[in-house]
Amino acid sequence: NSDRIWLDIIRGISMVIIVCFHYSCGLIEINFNGYTNYFYHYATNYWGTLGVNLFFLLSGAGLWLGYSKNCEPASYYKRRWLKLFPMFYLCVVPLYFMNALFVKKDFLYGGSPVKMLLTLAGMDGYLRSMMNNYYLTGEWFLGVIIVLYLLFPVLRRILLSDKAAPLFTAVLLVLCIMDARWDFSLIAGRR
Predict the structure, then answer these.
(1) What is the pTM of this model?
(2) Per-residue pLDDT reduced to its tens digit, 161-184
(3) Which of 32, 85, 120, 128 is least enclosed by beta carbons within 10 angstroms?
(4) Is the Cα torsion angle 108, 111, 113, 117 positive or negative in sign?
């Protein structure tokens, strides 16, 4: 499908951007000098932010195209779960055991065992700034994707409604402007 080829091209470009950004972060972390770090930031932002935002846009576009005709919630949520969690568990379970056995030497190193539920739900990275937990790998991105996947059927219904779509679009635009202008990390004393 010619519509989807552009999504794949943009996805590839954003993957390269994110890999280069993380490589640049690694060079900064080891204090590697003597080169110009073009892949860390550009004039107004970080390259990693651009790559991640492109992934979010691509995810939304893919969902919209894939569910343009029908979005039955039970089958939608089942497909999303099967797309995310088996691979996540394949990664996070061995990492947890290696970390608990060889690094932390404690199975409850993240605090309460109840907090393990955040890990199993893929939300520990997303909520890491609010509490110590079992965060292991890039789950912050997974948490954001889960929230967006949970909201998609509702947002889709709103956007397909003739009456609510203009208001929803205006609210979304205001929220985007607020996010770009305000430092939300100051809310509740978080940094």
Answers:
(1) 0.77
(2) 877 777 777 887 887 776 665 554
(3) 32
(4) negative
